[in-house]
Design a protein that fits this description.
Blueprint lengths: L1 E5 L5 H6 L4 H6 L6 E5 L1 H7 L5 H20 L6 E5 L9 H7 L4 E6 L23 H8 L2 E4 L2 H7 L6 E3 L21 E6 L5 H6 L1 H11 L3 E6 L5 E2 L4 E2 L8 H5 L4 E4 L5 H4 L4 H8 L4 E3 L5 H4 L12 H13 L1 H18 L2 H19 L1
Parallel strand pairs: 1-2, 1-3, 3-4, 4-5, 5-6, 7-8, 7-11, 11-12
Antiparallel strand pairs: 9-10
Helix pairs in contact: 9-14, 12-15
Length: 359
């Protein structure tokens, strides 16, 4: 049984952490039931401002779902928990799952032991308990950590920790010929309404690029349809799983700016891997897993200062062959080190090891 917050194909984190592996595990004898908390309507209400009565009803609903899971937990061989069982600070259900006959796997891909609350739920921050992450890690039989930074944290509470990076399905992630022939070089960013603040940190750099190249460049912001960037005269677009590859294929250069803080060190470089998987040259802040993914100047760029950002982006804008060279090297990196195909045997090995140990 998979315990997760969101429905299938809704959350990039879930897709790139475990959903892509399900078909391969099924081919090797595993069957799955997925127990998620939030449907599409719940998502809209839960992450919007206000709606506190509706959020209270959603909270009661999540308890009903997990009580049902608790009652049937002993029918499973493995209970796989992505991030947590509830959206509040409780570890009630993780404790019960850990006492069942099933082996438990805990998967996390952010520094979720630090406080982070969506804009729509700041007044409800008191209901969260980031410290519960360490308790959940200590309860489970196997931990999947998204990068070395997260693994070092997990090893404080559990000795059975495996680094499983977020991965790209490179059979599906093939660049589409969807870019209009405008003669402009498109610099783009992908994310969500909660991470658009990272894009905002790159605006001073992108303004300089716009001033330098004028109509030779354009900008694309994927992930927040309500965001409008006045400085670049660019309207954000909604993210959609069904059109993700097509939307990203319109980019000539992908950027991943990040602040250098503890939360961002837990990031698994997913935006950069998405660009690279499609052969789009990635320019990323030298933070967290980005330092493991990128060889600066070979398969991408890791500029540290504003001047370096402007220089690297200018080089790519001016030189189509360089964009192709860096993009091809990035694609190869993903195929060899960060693809679902590259990790699926290790993933299966971990599941088989738990079952064997349990018998």
């Amino acid at each position: 049984m998979i315990i997760c917050p969101h429905r299938v194909n809704r959350s990039p984190g879930q897709r790139y952490r475990y959903e892509q592996y399900i078909p391969f595990l099924q081919q090797n004898g595993y069957q799955f039931e997925i127990s998620n908390l939030l449907n599409e309507k719940d998502d809209r209400n839960f992450y919007s401002n206000g709606n506190y009565f509706k959020k209270f009803l959603i909270y009661l609903k999540t308890w009903r779902i997990r009580i049902k899971d608790w009652r049937r937990m002993n029918k499973y061989d493995i209970i796989f928990i992505y991030r947590d069982a509830l959206i509040t600070g409780s570890t009630f259900f993780e404790k019960r799952f850990s006492r069942s006959k099933a082996k438990t796997i805990y998967d996390f891909d952010d520094a979720i032991w630090l406080q982070a609350v969506s804009a729509g739920n700041k007044r409800l921050a008191f209901l969260k308990n980031p410290a519960k992450t360490s308790k959940i890690i200590g309860l489970c039989d196997l931990i999947f950590a998204g990068n070395q930074f997260l693994a070092r944290y997990a090893l404080q509470f559990n000795n059975n920790v495996v680094v499983i990076p977020s991965t790209i399905d490179t059979d599906m992630y093939v660049r589409k010929d969807t870019k209009e022939d405008t003669g402009k070089v498109c610099i783009g960013w992908t994310g969500s309404p909660t991470t658009v603040r990272h894009f905002i940190t790159a605006i001073p750099v992108l303004k300089k690029i716009k001033e330098k190249f004028g109509d030779k460049v354009e900008f694309k912001i994927i992930g927040d349809k309500n965001y409008y960037c006045t400085e670049l005269d660019t309207q954000g677009e909604a993210w959609a799983a069904a059109t993700e590859v097509e939307d990203l294929s319109r980019l000539d250069i992908g950027i991943m700016p990040l602040p250098d803080d503890e939360w961002e060190k837990g990031k698994c470089g997913m935006k950069g891997l998405q660009y690279m998987g499609l052969g789009i040259p990635a320019v990323m802040s030298p933070v967290g897993a980005n330092l493991e993914i990128i060889q600066d100047g070979i398969n991408g760029y890791l500029p540290r200062t504003e001047d370096e950002w402007v220089e690297r982006l200018s080089m790519l804008v001016e030189d189509k062959m360089l964009r192709e060279q860096i993009g091809d090297a990035g694609r190869q990196t993903v195929v060899e080190r960060y693809s679902t195909n590259a990790w699926r045997e290790k993933y299966l090995e971990c599941f088989n090891g738990l079952i064997k140990h349990g018998n």
